[in-house]
Design a protein that fits this description.
CATH architecture: Orthogonal Bundle
CATH class: Mainly Alpha
Strand content: under 5%
Oligomer: single chain
CATH topology: Tetracycline Repressor, domain 2
CATH superfamily: Tetracycline Repressor, domain 2
Helix content: over 70%
Number of helices: 9
Structural class: mainly alpha
Largest sheet: none
Distance between the termini: 68 Å
Radius of gyration: 19 Å
Shape: elongated
Length: 184
């Protein structure tokens, strides 16, 4: 039987979580789906809990840290926002919804999600601070932008991806109007 590399296990876990939820993250089920033995799993992970912990860190690194790093490569605030929007628009909203739902039932998942949410809001605050607004206003705008992002994810089964992208664009336009009026 073949042995998978660790990142293949984690990528499979991410896809499985997005599609089927956390209950689908069983060692037996994943091994069967991937056509490998349990030895392949245990070669990389001591147990399911270790796998889950590493899976969540993998998600955090992939969907938060790398995105922020990529956006931070440019100096212009509008270009950073555009880079963030471009990368986030590629996310599988089912994954974020599955993790948020899971976090309501599992305190360890909630800790990771809270850390991710805080990091994302803090980064938005860092970006929006370049608009030369009061610190409190920047914080409020950052939380509002993130709340719109999370709320839109929850609506995606109801609204289309196109409508979601249009909502995001509308928010950015409203932000630009707000900032331009505050700069006078």
């Amino acid at each position: 039987m073949k042995r998978l590399k660790k990142d293949k296990w984690l990528e499979h876990g991410i896809k499985n979580l997005a599609t089927n939820g956390p209950s689908a993250l069983t060692i037996d089920g994943m091994c069967e789906h991937l056509g490998v033995t349990k030895g392949s799993f245990y070669h990389h992970f001591k147990n399911r809990n270790i796998f889950i912990g590493e899976l969540l860190v993998y998600w955090e690194q992939r969907d938060t840290n790398r995105v922020i790093s990529h956006a931070s490569e440019v100096g212009d605030v509008k270009e950073r926002v555009n880079r963030l929007d471009d990368q986030i628009s590629r996310f599988d909203s089912r994954l974020e919804r599955a993790i948020r739902s899971w976090a309501r039932m599992d305190k360890d998942v909630a800790k990771v999600l809270n850390r991710v949410d805080k990091r994302r809001i803090d980064y938005l605050q860092e970006v929006y601070s370049e608009y030369s607004l009061e610190e409190h206003t920047v914080r409020q705008l950052s939380m509002l932008a993130y709340a719109c992002y999370v709320g839109t994810q929850e609506l995606l089964p109801i609204i289309s991806k196109k409508e979601s992208d249009e909502l995001n664009e509308s928010f950015n336009q409203l932000l630009e109007v707000y900032v331009s009026r505050k700069s006078y």
